[in-house]
Amino acid sequence: MKAVSTQSDLTGIGMKFSAMYGSLYGALEGGRVRTGLVTLSSLSMYVDMRSLFQFAQTLSARIDSADGLVCSRSIPPLTTARR
After folding, report:
1. 36 Cβ contact list (under 8 Å, min separation 6)
2. How far apart are CA 8 and CA 73, in angstroms?
3. Whole-model pTM?
């Protein structure tokens, strides 16, 4: 687990992710790094949707360029789930 200064620091999150992903990728011999994104909803409270979308696209592109695998799932906020 890596920490960033604030939840709104998407650049910091991306840099920490890239460093961690790079070390995992370098340690594998012919395998694929699998990444799971459970939800980005919590980040949407701290950044605008455009920035969050760009962040998700950049993250996916980094994973794809390393022939990695990303699985994502969106969990609706509690208020939406009750409707």
Report:
1. 70, 71, 72, 73
2. 21
3. 0.72
Q: Are 25 and 68 in contact (CB under 8 A)?
A: yes
Query: Do residues 68 and 35 lie in contact, with contact meaning Cβ atoms separated by under 8 Å?
Result: yes
Instruction: Count Cβ atoms below 10 Å from residue 13 Cβ, excluding itself.
Output: 19
| C-alpha 24, offset from chain centre | 15
Question: Per the structure block, which two tokens stand in for 28?
Answer: 């594998």
For helices 10-27 and 49-65, give the axis angle rounded to 10 degrees: 10
Side chain identity, residue 42: S
Output phi, psi for 69, to 5 deg.
-125, 130
> How confident is residue 83, by pLDDT bands cut at 50, 70 and 90?
very low
